[in-house]
Amino acid sequence: MPVIEMVFWFFIFLVVYCYAGYGAFLFVFNSIKQKLNSQKKESIITDWPSVTFIIPVFDEEDIIEQKIENTLSLNYPANKLNVIFITDGSRDGSVDVIKNYPDTLLLHMPERRGKSAAIKRAMRYVKTQFVVFSDANAILNSDALQLLMKHFADSKVGGVAGEKKVMNKKLFAAGMAEGIYWRYESFLKKQDAAFYSVVGAAGELFAIRTHLFKSFDDSIILDDFMISVQVCLQGYRFAYEPGAYAIETPSVSLGDEKLRKVRIAAGAYQTISQLPGCFNMFKYPLLCFQYFSRRLLRWTVCPLLFVLIFFINVYLLRINASAVYFYLMLGQIVFYIAAFFGWLTVKINRNPGWLTIPFYFVFMNMCLYRGFFNFISNKHTVLWKKSLREAFQ
Length: 393
Hints:
alpha/beta; 51% helix; 393 residues; eight-stranded mixed beta sheet
């Protein structure tokens, strides 16, 4: 077999492994592991530890009161719950709303320096053993905090990732695509945690042991990913609790969703250079394997492979008119055409149906391309324009 054909099939293997093979491998491995460890007992906690919530806020007047009420009404001892709202740079009525709740601590300064700087400033006021991070536009279920805290009975657990759910209000077609994507992400997180550790928590809801928090540069965009991976690099695991969930509404338009995805993509490339420890397979073999399979392949390798596979396939058809290469080429063309029509359907705010999968898949990878160019051209910033989201009812 010519070298170009071997390269072609290797590229296809990497893509299949990244998006399906890795998850399938973990699912089988974890299923066997679960059968061998069926005697595992769940810890029972009677004396709940003191916890501090840190909730960064930037111009969230429309939802901040609902967020405060939601946080203070969580099923957790009130004397063990501390809440810090940090509103640096907010110019709407968010600050005035929070002032009406004396049971919370309000930190505010006129200058907006970004979410990472705000979190680091708020951490100076944390006196409890555990800290929970949550976004201002995310509403939690009542038992979320208890479900997170029970995992810390295991001394090897340094953090716990909650579940993110996107409310499907059927008002914006791309919002449904985002919901499907997060259900797939939830499946992978469950498999990651059962294998060893979650590799990166979502900022909507996660908790860590306070002493494991490490400072990082104010320019970091993906603060949630940085915090959670730093916990793992200290020798702890990051658990996953799907029963503790944060609900947020989808973006109001495809343009707003694109802004958010491009920002996250730029932040992803930024963190790669900031976390060299993740590449040390001798010190962190399991974490390195997961980081490569779960993040690096999807962020850096696969977006490029899609282009290479297409053009190598064209070349192979010219030198080898094999039916295999013909049908592979046909499959790619049909997939991208389906993605295009899915995009057109979403543009007119209609339900794309089965076109959701090819559309959102291509959409996310296009955002990775744009995010990469923003990163290398130094156009990424922590002071991003907020993406508009649908309102809670």
